[in-house]
Amino acid sequence: AHHRTEGGRFIAVKGAPESILAICTRILDGTGLRPLGAEERRAIELALHDLSEQAVRVLALAYRIDPDQD
Question: Which residues of the chain have pLDDT under 70?
Answer without folding.
Answer: 1-2, 68-70
